[in-house]
Each structure stands twice: as structure tokens, then as C-alpha cells.
Amino acid sequence: MEKDIEKMMNIAKYKRLNASIPDVETKAFNNMSFSSSIKDGVIFKDVKDFLAHADDETLDNVLKYSKSEREKNTGLGSSVKADLIKKQNSGFYLKIEQNFTDDDYVIINYKLDEENNALFDLNVIDIADNVKATVVINYEGGCKDAFRNGFYYTQIGKEAELNLVKVQDFLDESMNVESAKFELKERAKFNYYPVEFGAGTCLTSCSTYQKEEWSEVTIYPLFFVDDKRKADYEQNLIVNGKNSLGHIKANGCIKDEGRKVFRGNVFLNKGCKRSIGRFSDKSVIMNPGIKAHTIPTIFCDEDDVIGEHAGSFEPLKVSELYYLMSRGFTKKEARVILVKSAFLPAINLIKNRELKDKLLGKLEERLSK
User: Fold this and answer.
1) Rounded Cα gap, residues 287 and 278, in angstroms
2) What is the DSSP string of 239-298?
3) Are strands 92-96 and 42-46 parallel, antiparallel or unpaired?
4) I need a surface site. Which of 188, 219, 242, 299 has the fewest CB within 10 A?
5) How far apart are CA 176 and CA 169, in angstroms?
6) Residues near 136 by Cβ (< 8 Å), separated by ≥ 6?
């Protein structure tokens, strides 16, 4: 009976996109690289080495990822995680114990190609107490039938701050499936920029847990869905601690025959007094006939809290287009400028000039088609 229910849930999950997750065989993956602007206070190693010595609580968070009854309908389905654990062929453990300056960063790069066309990556990030850090994770490349199933578990320590930029820029022939779990301790701060540029089909689910008091989360999902690509994004804010702030602020663009679903769930749980949870999804529609959905939901069982949600689909503003055109830009150039402005906050966090220029060039290329 439980399997039947789960099967029904999975069908419902992707039916708006007419998408399903294939059964892909695992194989060796040898195309992941790491670089850091600082050497001391940064530990980076194979996730298997870390898990071999991890305690039971950590193993439960990384391998099992149990949820509350209220959250049971979120996520991509237990079968997706089980498949990843069974087929895992890559992944890292990253611990940062030293403060970064504004110019310091860590970059992890995964690249799909003909030889490395199946990626099952399990990743753990641990930010120590009172540490500020910037981490950039880049997924690129791809080929026909290339596939990725990935998972992140991230813990942000007491009074720590993590700026995390994740860029997915696979070729259109590829499929991307990703789940993530982030946990914040007291007075921790988390700024997350998931940038979704590529993959023919992209299915993602991210859950952020504000377990303790005074934590602050800002998530800026940035997406571009064009041609005949399909995207199903989910962001879950689970607020338990008092005096906490959580905000999901999605911005993106849909073009051609692109299809997109965005689910934003805010959970204001018992005990989170004087907390605020917000979700908004602003989608720019580049042409008529586009099929897209935004599904904002707030679950609340606490008094003295604020919960807000909003969703909008709108074409580029004519007044802004005319303003730029009056300054000498063509209509096509003006459209590119206006859409790029939604992506710049995340892209400007990337200190690596080569990667930043590549992303801006990719965005301009898609917009100019």
C-alpha cells in the first residue's frame, strides 16, 4: 500500500511536465576538481572517507534524511535518494574552520562528458562556529543521455555565515536531479544562490531547517528555461527557532516552449514565535503560449509570526524597454539587459572571473536565440 501511495505521489509530482526519472547505470566518474584561495582551515576529501568515520546522527542526516509527518509530501521521492546511495560514484566532504575575507572562496567543479556521463554525487559541507565562508559549486558539460542525481547535506555552525553559489549549466541533452538539506544553528546566516541555466529536464528539491533562534536565510533561486526544456523546482523553509527570518526570492525567465513549475513551501512550526517566513516567485515571460506554474504554500501552527507568499508571471515592462531603446539600445539588446539584471546578484558573488564571464556569455547566448 505504501509503495502504491509513493508511486502515485511521484506521478503527481512531475505530471505537469510529463517527465520521469530514468534508471541509469552507474559507472566510474573522474571529472571533479577543487580549488581554494586559502589553504589553512579548509578540509576537503572524498565523502566516503568522511562517512567511514561519521557518527550515527550524521549518517542519518546524510544517508536517510528522515522528515516530519508534515513534510511527507515534499521532495523528489524516497526512491531517488535510495538510487543515489546505491549508485554513488562521486562526492566530497568540505569543512571550513577559518574566516574568509570577501575575496576568498572555494570552488568545486563537476563536468559531464562522453566518458563521465553518469554522475551520482553525495556531498557534505560543514561550516564551523563563528566562521564566514563563500563556496561555489559548478556543474557543466554534458552529452546525449548524460545524467546526474545529486544530494547535499550542509550544516552551518553557531553565528557562522555561508554564501553558497551553485551553478548548473549542463547541455540540453542532459538531465539533472538534485536534493539538498541545509541546517542552521543559533544566529547562523545562510545566503544561497541556486542558478539553473541548463539541462533538458531539471528536477530539484531543497529543504532548509532553521532549528535554533535568530537564524537568517535568504535564498535566491535563479532560473532560465528556454527551447523545449522542462524544470520542476522546490524550495522548503522549515522554521522552528524563535526570532528567525527566512526568505525565498525566486527570479527567472521562461522562453520559447520552456515549461516550469516552482513549489515554495514555508513551514512555521510550533515554537518559532516572532519569526518571519516569505516566498515569492517572479517569472519573466518572453513570448505568448508558455506553460508555467508557481505553487506557494504556508503551513503555520504558531501565533505571533508572519508568513507571506507571492507569485507573478509578467512580460518585460514596455516602459523599461522603451527607456533603454531611447538610450540607443536595440529591442533585442534591451531585453537581454533587463533579464540579466535578475541574475547579477548571484553571478557577482563569484570571484572567479573566467567562470563569471562564461555564465554571462551563456545567458546572453540563450537570450539572443
Assistant:
1) 29
2) E-STT-EEEEEEEEEE-TT-EEEEEEEEEE-TT-TT-EEEEEEEEEE-STT-EEEEEEEE
3) antiparallel
4) 299
5) 10
6) 105, 106, 107, 108, 164, 165, 166, 167, 349, 350, 351, 352, 355
350-361 pLDDT per residue, tens: 766 777 787 788
Exposed/middle/buried for residue 327 (C-beta within 10 Å: 0-12, 13-18, 19+) = exposed
Task: Give the CA distances from residue 50 to residues 93, 107, 205, in Å, rounded to whole numbers and listed in that order.
Answer: 7, 19, 24
Q: Is this prediction's pTM over 0.70? A: yes
CB atoms within 10 A of CB 226: 18
**DSSP code per residue over 333-361:** HHHHHHHHHHHHHHHTT---HHHHHHHHH
- How far is 155 from 28, CA to CA, in rounded Å? 28
What is the β-pairing status of strands 106-112 and 161-170?
unpaired
Report the SS3 class of residue 42. Answer: strand
In sequence order, the β-bridge partners of residue 126 are 95, 155
| Residue 293, domain extent | 2-367
345 pLDDT tier (thresholds 50, 70, 90): confident
Question: Could you give the C-alpha distances from 132 to 41, 127, 199, 252, 260, in angstroms and in order?
Answer: 12, 8, 32, 28, 34
DSSP letter assigned to residue 157: -
* pLDDT tens-digit series, residues 271-289: 999 999 999 998 888 888 8
Instruction: Tell me the per-residue pLDDT of 173-220, one tens digit each, with 9 for 90 and over.
Output: 999 999 999 999 999 999 999 999 999 999 999 999 999 999 999 999
Asked if residue 12 has pLDDT above 50, the reply is no
For 72, counting Cβ atoms within 10 Å of its Cβ (0-12 exposed, 13-18 middle, 19+ buried), the class is exposed
What three-state secondary structure class fits 170? Answer: strand
How many angstroms from the chain centroid is the CA of residue 273?
Answer: 27
- Please name the residue that has the C-alpha cell 513551501: 265
Q: Supply the pLDDT for residue 348.
A: 78
Exposed/middle/buried for residue 8 (C-beta within 10 Å: 0-12, 13-18, 19+): exposed
